[in-house]
Amino acid sequence: MNVLLDHLPEFRDGFLGTLALTAASAALALILGVLIAGFRVSPVPPLRAFGTAWVTLLRNTPLTLLFLVAFFVVPLILFPGVSPFVLATLALGFYTSSFVCEAVRSGISTVPLGQAEAARSIGMTFMQTLRMIVLPQATRTVIPPLSSIFIALTKNSAIAGAFSNTELFNVSKLLSDKGFAIGWIFLWIALAYLVITFTISGIFRLLERRLEVAR
Amino acid sequence: MTASVLYDAPGPKAKVRNRLYAVGGSLAILALLVFAVLRLDAKGQLNPELWDILNYANVRTNILNGVLTTLQVFAVAAVLSLVLGVLLAVGRLSDHKPIRWLATGFIELFRAIPLLITIYALWVLFLSYQSELGFTGEGTQFWALVIGLTVYNGSVQAEVLRAGINSVSKGQREAAYAIGMRKTQVMTTILMPQAIRAMLPTIISQLVVTLKDTSLGFVITYEELLYTLRLMAQNTTINEQDTYLPLIVAGGVIYVAMCLALSSLATWIERRGRRAKTGIAVAEAGQALTAGDAMAPIDGATTPGPVDKTKE
Amino acid sequence: MRMRKTATAATVVLALAATATACGGKSGSAGDKPKSEKVFSGDYKVAKDVKIDSPTLKKAQQRGKIIIGAKADQPFLGFQDSDGKRTGFDIEIAKMVAADLGFSPKQVEFKTVDSNVRETSISKGQVDYYVGTYTINDERKKQVGFAGPYMTAGADLLVRKDEKAITGPDKVKGKKVCSIVGSTPLQEIKKAKYGAETTELGKYSDCVKSLLDGQVDAVTTDDAILKGYAAERPSKLKVVGKPFTEEPYGIGMNKNDKALREAISKAVEAHIKNGDYKKAYEGTLGKSGSAYEEPKTPLPRY
Predict the structure, then answer these.
(1) Domain A3-214 belongs to what topology?
(2) What does the pLDDT read at residue A132?
């Protein structure tokens, strides 16, 4: 009895589901995270406060609770009929954005003081300094933590499996309910996750090397 | 480097502009909030009767029980994961190859798999062998959750500790060997204490993650705080209106408060460590948080970990 | 400095939350009042010195209590209110059986088992037996043993009160229909014949919430369950009333424990004959609008 070969379509769907969820929420988290990090270092106090509140709130809430909010409160505020995939992406993306924001912010603080000062002295505005001088240089230090954040995101996407999304966790549960030995399922699922996480860290290591050359 | 390096002290023009942005930004944020509130109100979600359920003794008792269960799981899992973390860290730095491999394999495996799946698999496993393991009733769920949290967070803590041990300067170790200490002595009296001290903020930040992850118990229907809230939200209706919103908000406040209390402890320790002239650099409190639920081995090495902050 | 403030604030909030939850509050149950008082809850005569050659039962007797799996979110079937009190038809059936197996109400422990972990929970022996709208089918028979059927329901559709388009299972093409992961009606409605889009959640009550919010257009599962939800929110929900499957409910237990299955079947038969069954049915499901129908006795043994 080989669980993997007999249920290849299920495993494939689960794998693709996990991949899609991860990619979509990673994109959302990246955009939001950089934006909020910009807020947090901006000269405008309300935006700073908003950034701080965002990070504090999202980082200290269990992701499961955010899923409840996304599935049972968000549809009340927005229009109904949003697909579970979008809602799950919202929950995962928002949660992860707070971590991305903090990574970017600490990346910003590793850019040598002189760089920002030089930028200012040639008359750049805050936006220009951030966009052209600081952020590009911060990227280098942000990449390693980003890699682990996205690996965490991959694993967190498992929670979406309990909310009408087909992904790897869902598949493991389905098969376990059908009575297959949990040990084997666990092993195959673990392997699938390892493939994804190794790919992510591989891509980021590649990026890291690229950027190092650019220095 | 402080954020203010990024922009000049605003002149008169910039001041006006910043004020404009401030007003605009606040208005935008306010508008979002008002929109949300209005929409919720339109759906009758802000009805005072709905929120009144939080005033009832039975609802409060249920919430309190949920909080206590959550804290109980957290306490046991926290202690066990720290113990496991120390063991694994030492194992990974061991001189014996098999031990090193075993520890590395364990750490990499459990860090790679979603905790949710680990917990579920453990639960099924425990149920299959419950009589052999001597579990009764709630025991299986409790231990599946605790052990799941332990193996995952233990693996992460091990990596944190390893980074801490590696950050202790080589001279210390060599000096200890030079005065004739044994491997175990060096580890327990020289390296580990310094590693723990240096990494304490990161360790506590990971404990915050542990606390949050107790909520994953929902998948095996363990009745911790989140599960309790959910059950009540589904089963308590007011004028045919469900009570998700008040209970989710109440739960959110409790979780955020618990986590904030823990993470401010980390910040406090970091501050104290920085003031103390022990010469042991203390890691940034934010570090584990940015690393999120998975501290990859790389960030122990590359993020500004235990850098000497006195140079600031 | 700022952090110090945050810490203080956090501690204050925590302390407030703790005192708020600890110190009393209004007595009585929160929520719409009559529900659990309205529902019938009976006491049954406890049998003495039960001797059945069943490993499950022997273990239960040793520990001095019997653990029964049930649902907690299905009004009039298996429901738990915020006081922790359980009511409903399934609960009554479970109590009848427990009494005949020699366990007094004090020795009965209910355990909430959601549909998505049912097979695992029963086959691995987390509960001694399970009464919770559990349809008998061949797929499940491979993993659990069934006594019964003790009643027969049929899959139906629950829609919002103002719904005009969905008048039966043949009108759901392209509509969003919600049910729980792996449930039988869900498999049915997915088929090309009906052609609905499906949303799969962990609990029926999650589906009902999604229906109320407009996230989905209908919820499908057994009519007995749906009628309970409709009865809870009569001004918002209605049941379409055109069942499209047959769902015989059984009591789930360990597959290999034949003696327990026999004992449970006998217990249910006895209570059908002495009228307890009818009383329980009318006091629970009868109130949510299901007509009483006496199950065929003797119950089938397989």
Answers:
(1) MetI-like fold (1.10.3720)
(2) 86
* Residue listed under structure tokens 């034949």: C258
| A85 vs C: CB within 8 A | no
Q: What per-residue confidence (pLDDT) applies to B305?
A: 36
Is the pLDDT reported for residue B302 higher than 50?
no
Domain boundaries defined on chain C: 35-153+248-288, 155-239
Q: What is the pLDDT of residue A20?
A: 92
Q: Looking at chain B, which subunits does it touch, using at least 3 CB pairs closer than 8 Å as the criterion?
A: A, C
Out of C118, C200, C213, the one facing A80 most closely (by C-beta) is: C213
The matching CATH number, chosen from 3.90.79.10, 3.30.70.3340, 3.40.190.10, 3.90.78.10, for C155-239 is 3.40.190.10
Closest to A150 in 3D by CA, of A11, A39, A27, A16: A27
The share of chain A scoring above pLDDT 70, in percent, equals 96
Query: Phi/psi class of residue C68: alpha, beta or left (left: φ > 0; alpha: ψ in -120 to 50)?
Result: beta
Q: How confident is the model at residue A213 (pLDDT cuts 50, 70, 90)?
A: low
Q: Do A120 and B116 touch (CB under 8 A)?
A: no
CATH class given for the domain over C35-153+248-288: alpha beta
Q: If you average pLDDT over residues C206-217, what whole number do you get?
A: 86
Residues 6+ apart with CB under 8 A from C97: C129, C131, C251, C264, C267, C268
Residue entry with tokens 């349809």: C135
- pLDDT tens per residue, range B196-248: 888 888 888 889 989 999 988 887 878 888 888 888 887 777 777 778 888 88
A121-180 residues touching B, CB cutoff 8 A: 125-126, 129-130, 134, 141, 144-145, 147-149, 151-159, 161-162, 168-169, 172-173, 176
pTM score: 0.81
Give the full edge-to-edge strand order of the sheet including C218-222. C197-201, C176-180, C218-222, C155-160, C237-239
Once rounded to an integer, what is the mean pLDDT over residues A158-179? 78
